[in-house]
């Protein structure tokens, strides 16, 4: 919020009731995933309350110690991966901006990318460069950083 970087609407659920309330607020489909794992494990796109309940009962444990992230799924968005390197003086170098071939929601480790991007408007690339640099500086990164973005068909960057 402080950096004015847009992100899909969502929330953190500590119970089934929380997850259902968040999904109702942001609207289906939603992406659900545990907040406590890396690598996209147990991530799923769900389209209604019954599928969300099934996910919560079968795929993850949801409780105050193990919350689940529930975010609006951006249908038909293109996912972008950005790799950067920042030195101890705060110089940020963007090594690559990669365009996923699959639609957003396929984990980056399971997808193929194009380098350089082929279909991304220059205005979106400029937003991505600006936001990535802001993040690296605000987080005081020294070393490698990866950022992931989604671009909707209307050109909105998240």
Automatic annotation (TrEMBL):
Keywords: ATP-binding, Ligase, Nucleotide-binding. The keyword ATP-binding applies. The keyword DNA damage does not apply. Pfam families: CPSase_L_D2. Gene3D superfamilies: ATP-grasp fold, B domain. Residues 28-42 form the Carbamoyl phosphate synthase ATP-binding domain. PANTHER family: CARBAMOYL-PHOSPHATE SYNTHASE [AMMONIA], MITOCHONDRIAL (PTHR11405:SF53), CARBAMOYLTRANSFERASE FAMILY MEMBER (PTHR11405). This is Carbamoyl-phosphate synthase large chain, chloroplastic-like. The lineage of its organism: Eukaryota, Viridiplantae, Streptophyta, Embryophyta, Tracheophyta.
């Amino acid at each position: 919020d402080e950096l004015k970087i847009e992100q899909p609407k969502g929330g953190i659920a500590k119970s089934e009731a929380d997850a259902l309330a968040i999904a109702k607020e942001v609207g289906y489909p939603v992406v659900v995933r545990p907040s406590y794992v890396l690598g996209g494990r147990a991530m799923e796109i769900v389209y209604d309350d019954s599928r969300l309940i099934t996910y919560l009962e079968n795929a993850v444990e949801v409780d105050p110690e193990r919350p689940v992230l529930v975010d609006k799924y951006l249908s038909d968005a293109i996912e972008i991966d950005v790799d950067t390197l920042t030195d101890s003086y705060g110089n940020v170098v963007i090594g690559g901006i990669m365009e996923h071939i699959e639609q957003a929601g396929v984990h980056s480790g399971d997808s193929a990318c194009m380098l350089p991007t082929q279909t991304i408007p220059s205005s979106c690339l400029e937003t991505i460069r600006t936001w990535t640099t802001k993040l690296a500086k605000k987080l005081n990164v020294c070393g490698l950083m990866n950022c992931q973005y989604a671009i909707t068909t209307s050109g909105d960057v998240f």
